[in-house]
Amino acid sequence: MPLKVILDSNFLMIPAEFHLDIFSELDKILNRKIQEIIISPVYDELKWISQNSDPKQRRQAELTLKLIARFEITCVKSNTNETVDDLILRLAKEWQCPVATNDRKLLERLRVSNVPVIYLRQRTHLAVEGLVT
User: Fold this and answer.
1) Exposed/middle/buried for 45, CB within 10 Å: 0-12, 13-18, 19+?
2) CA 105, CA 128: separation in Å to the nearest integer?
């Protein structure tokens, strides 16, 4: 059974910004078959960035949307007043799976909650923090 990994929007934009193949890197550092989870609010966030940000961010988001077109988007509903970060944290706890993100605030919240995290390190490779089971 593949390991589920929730992918945050800023993590998904790594290939466009740093020219790093995050999917092969994930396979390499986790050393197992993974199931990339892209939740609908993350997808919506990327669509919003592709239409409403500065030109550089728009291009990166558009490239990211093309890159993830081959993946299934997991439809999930937020609770009242729940941010995308709150939702990611809640799902990671419920599904007992790691989260791939570069968002500093979310990283800290995940660490405090003992959720394994995957993040970009030194702009060249991915790193895992926490116990991935």
Assistant:
1) middle
2) 17
Q: What is the pLDDT of residues 87-111, one digit of tens each?
A: 999 999 999 999 999 999 999 999 9
C-alpha–C-alpha distance, residues 80 and 65, integer Å = 27
Alpha carbons within 13 angstroms on the beta-carbon side of residue 105 total 5
pTM above 0.70, yes or no: yes
Q: Which domains does the chain have, with CATH numbers?
A: 3-129 (3.40.50.1010)
Which residues are within 8 A (CB) of 39 and not within 5 positions of it... i.e. 6 or more apart?
6, 73, 74, 75, 76, 87, 88, 91
Sequence-distant (≥ 6) Cβ neighbours of residue 35 within 8 angstroms: 2, 3, 4, 5
Q: What is the DSSP letter of 96?
A: T
- At residue 119, the 3 state secondary structure works out as strand
Coil, strand or helix at 37 = strand
Q: Give bridge partners of residue 126 from the DSSP assignment.
A: 120
Structure tokens at 31: 């050393």
